Amino acid sequence: MISQKTKYAIKALMTLGDELASGGSALTIEEIAQRSGAPKRFLEHIMLELRNAGYVGSRRGRAGGYVLIKPAQEISIGELLRQVDGPIAPLPCLSRRSYQRCEDCDDEKTCRLRKMFGQVFWSYLLLIESLTLEDLLDQGDLPEIPEIGVA
């Protein structure tokens, strides 16, 4: 499950992407908060993190604010999830960047939990790594979500 922080980060980037696509310029924190529905105080920390990661730039002065500086088609949703939330693997032994052997595991090669979650996680990774911010901005191409009940 992604955190609220990640949801706000994605919404902020989508807001900046929409502004850029419509020929607009930099947006202030207040404008991003209003358009994205993210709380301003929380958004200030998120925008600093996104700026430090190279997704957005900031300008001072009258026409100041934040602007998307990395092209939307180059912003991987999987990479963004890792940037904001850290590892996304369901088990530490499946993580690409933060691999750790599970403390209670005798043998990774025969671990049934690792195999089962590994298959599910691999499917998830194939999709999440292929999605970009551009895909989210062009909502028409995203598939409908099937009704799966309460999880």
TrEMBL record:
A Pfam family assignment: Rrf2
UniProt keyword Zinc, yes or no: no
One GO MF term attached to the UniProt entry: DNA-binding transcription factor activity
Cellular component GO terms, alphabetical: cytosol
Keyword annotations of the record: DNA-binding
Gene3D superfamilies on file: Winged helix-like DNA-binding domain superfamily/Winged helix DNA-binding domain
PANTHER family on file: HTH-TYPE TRANSCRIPTIONAL REGULATOR ISCR, WINGED HELIX-TURN-HELIX TRANSCRIPTIONAL REGULATOR, RRF2 FAMILY
Designated name of the protein: BadM/Rrf2 family transcriptional regulator
